[in-house]
Amino acid sequence: MKHLMLQPDPYLENLRIRVLVAGFTHVHANWKYRAHRPSYNRLYYVKSGYGYVEINGVRYLPEKEEMLLVPAGAKVSFGTLPGKETFTKYWIHFDARLGETPLFDILSVPYLTPVHAPEFITGCFQKILVSEQKKEDLSSILYQQSSVLDLIAWIIEQQPSSSRQQVATGRFDTILAYIQNHFHEKITVEDLSKMAGLHPNHFIKVFRGQIGTSPGQYINKLRIDKARELLVEETYTIGEIASMTGFHDESYFSKTFKKYIGRTPREYRREMLSSLSIAP
């Protein structure tokens, strides 16, 4: 069976994995935790027994040879089931980030995945546990990181081919929020593609598919909308508004504004101020 491996890529160069703690446990009858939002990810691999894990209000009942991922920040509760044998499970708590962004804010993966390759998955967890004994050893840290990456890649690989595009691209909420908060600064496709963990050419294609326009057009439209708001006031000059909205060249600002609005910034301001001065 061929397994998907995460190969080194310049657009994943800021991916960071850190295992916090790991174990292989037969949980006791009092295993229970009320709702909380941990800052780390949890990954459970059930070998036998029963229990529940509630994620963001939805209850999951993982069984033998199923793996459950609880992403950082999700509201989670868990416990045993009355009259049922308790879980025996491998488990890890780990941090995973692309830059400063939690990995699973970008990657959308299912919480529950059936395991059809128990030898491979067991091997990954055992490598993590062996490395846990030698945490100060550089090679052990690298083995842990590579094993976690293997597990994440395996989860992605199990999705139907028709949905892998969505899994690979994930949600764009983080990227759109970044653009909204930094539109007045220089924003490059390369920077945004690194946030998404995609090659720039692929990122442009995916962005257009998700948002309906290219990244450059989306950013320019946002900047022009902000400029229109500022032009209605007489507080700032055209040059100041150009700089405040991310256009550090007044000539390019005027050209782009006319392309979107059909008038130059000066013409638009004159027209809007004139209409506002007309008495009702």
Strand count = 10
Our estimate of the beta-strand percent is 15-25%
Q: Low-confidence parts lasting 5 or more residues at pLDDT below 50?
A: 1-11
Approximate shape: elongated
**What is the CATH topology classification name of the largest domain?**
Jelly Rolls
What count of structural domains? Answer: 2
Largest sheet: number of strands, sense, barrel closure: 6 strands, antiparallel
Report the CATH C-level class of the largest domain: Mainly Beta
CATH superfamily of the largest domain: Regulatory protein AraC
Structural class: alpha+beta
Order of helices and strands: EEEEEEEEEHEHHHHHHHHHH
Q: Helix tally?
A: 11
Return Rg in Å: 25 Å
Described by its quaternary structure, the protein is single chain
Mean pLDDT: 85
- Give the helix proportion (percent range): 40-55%
For the record, give the distance between the C-alpha atoms at the N and C termini, rounded to a whole number.
75 Å
At CATH level 2, the architecture of the largest domain is Sandwich
